[in-house]
Backbone:
């Protein structure tokens, strides 16, 4: 599976407000968020989509966000999840 952060503009209604609540919560926003992102997935979850979706979290104050960028398997990165 390849991670990205959804938004209202992607059709996930209510996500933007949920992200704002998360960022305002002093404890929750510090917790780790780990996403594995395939930079060579050009079909299912393209890196361009992932990169744009992460911008709001990085700019918005999620210090626990960790992005593991992988390359070489396209979308099939399930064996690298651990």
Residues:
């Amino acid at each position: 599976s390849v991670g990205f952060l959804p938004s209202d503009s992607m059709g996930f209604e209510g996500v933007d407000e949920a992200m704002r609540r998360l960022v305002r919560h002093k404890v929750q926003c510090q917790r780790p968020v780990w996403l594995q992102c395939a930079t060579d997935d050009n079909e299912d979850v393209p890196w361009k989509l992932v990169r744009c979706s992460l911008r709001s979290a990085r700019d918005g104050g999620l210090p626990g966000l960790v992005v593991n960028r992988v390359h070489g398997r396209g979308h099939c990165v399930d064996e690298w999840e651990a």
Remarks:
- The chain has a mean pLDDT of 78.
- The longest strand covers residues 33-38.
